[in-house]
Amino acid sequence: MKILICDTLNSKVLEELQSIGHCIDISSSDSKNQDLVSEINDAEIVVIRSSTQLTKEIIEKGNKIKIIARCGVGVDNIDVEYAKSKNIKVTNSPSANLTSVVELTVALIINAARKINLSDSHLKDGNWDRKEFIGIELSGKQLGIIGFGKAGRLVSDRMKSFGMSVAFYDPYIKDWEGLEKNLELDELLSSSDVISIHVIKTDETENLISKEKLDLLKKSAILINTSRGGVVDEDYLIEMLKSKQLFGAGLDVYSEEPPKNVDNFADINLITTPHIGASTNEAQLKAGLDSVENIKKILAGDSSVEI
Ligand code: NAD
Fold first, then answer.
1. Separation between Cα atoms, residue 278 and residue 7, nearest integer Å
2. Is 275 a catalytic residue?
3. Ligand 1 touching residue 205 (CB < 6 A)
4. Whether 102 and 177 share a structural domain
5. 61 and 187 share a domain?
6. Which structural domain range is residue 6 located in?
7. Are residues 61 and 31 in the same domain?
8. Looking at the structure, do residues 268 and 166 belong to the same domain, yes or no?
9. Domain tally for the chain?
């Protein structure tokens, strides 16, 4: 069985995959896109993380594919509908990255609240002008979570330990009986001090936080997006930070990756990371091992792990 590995995997995961079949690893190839097109032709299992795009055009070149395994949660880089129409089983590892992305989210919130990136560069440039770095306390403030699923709830749990109260917007959660306030989007945006986005990427969440919605934010607010690019109008967000219409922001994901407009990121309270939410040793190992287990289950006829 030929297993095509398109993105970098932990060595333990590679060993496990080698016990299932013959692995071809194109993850570090300089001509990865061409290799993908040529190697997918007779691959039976294709293993990817977030960097590889399995479009309809690519998938249709794989005449023998039985399984596509995504090590991680988002499957927006796979044409799942088309894969399913070709009877290809698609599987992911939805929980493996959670702790890592949640911890990054907390780091971005704290960084933005205390302008840590700006003050770090300031000091390393030989300066000591402390009045430029007046921050905000999180204790006693409201955290507004957009998308109260697995990641959203874990961020909520962690930020409560900072003394924050929590509200959320999630139209798919009805009759909420927890302590967190279930608010409509506009009310959440206008009443929260920190807003953190944890939705999945769908047609409905594309540009969910549009220019009009961003205008509802308090001038003193912080907005964080570690979910998926394109959910927030990023250009307008930058404009707001430049014109001091917003206190701070943190982004790990962008509508286009890598983002083109990075020159605009300088000298504003914007903490940016290059989509590293899942980039920890622990998350990558767990996502890979979960994927191996899923592949084994599917090969044994268990469809419970299919998307
Ligand atoms: P999840 O499915 O558990 O939660 C998503 C929540 O969003 C659900 O509760 C759902 O009801 C809600 N939702 C759906 N449509 C909505 C809408 N229109 N408005 C408001 N809420 C809506 O997903 P999760 O595991 O918590 O992951 C959340 C996001 O984090 C995903 O987009 C995932 O891709 C992303 N993620 C990013 C990284 C990274 O590297 N930055 C790593 C892991 C996960």
1. 14
2. yes
3. yes
4. yes
5. no
6. 2-95+280-299
7. yes
8. yes
9. 2
Q: Are residues 238 and 291 in the same domain?
A: no
Gap from CA of 22 to ligand 1 centroid (Å) = 34
pTM (two decimals): 0.89
Pocket-testing residue among 170, 231, 271, ligand 1, by greatest number of atoms within 8 A of Cβ: 170
What is the pLDDT tens value at each position of the chain, 307 positions in all?
A: 999 999 999 999 999 999 999 999 999 999 999 999 999 999 999 999 988 999 999 999 999 999 999 999 889 899 999 999 999 999 999 899 999 999 999 999 999 999 999 999 999 999 999 999 999 999 999 999 999 999 999 999 999 999 999 999 999 999 999 999 999 999 999 999 999 999 999 999 999 999 999 999 999 999 999 999 999 999 999 999 999 999 999 999 999 999 998 999 999 999 999 999 999 999 999 999 999 999 999 999 999 999 9
Q: What is the CATH number of the domain that holds 188?
A: 3.40.50.720
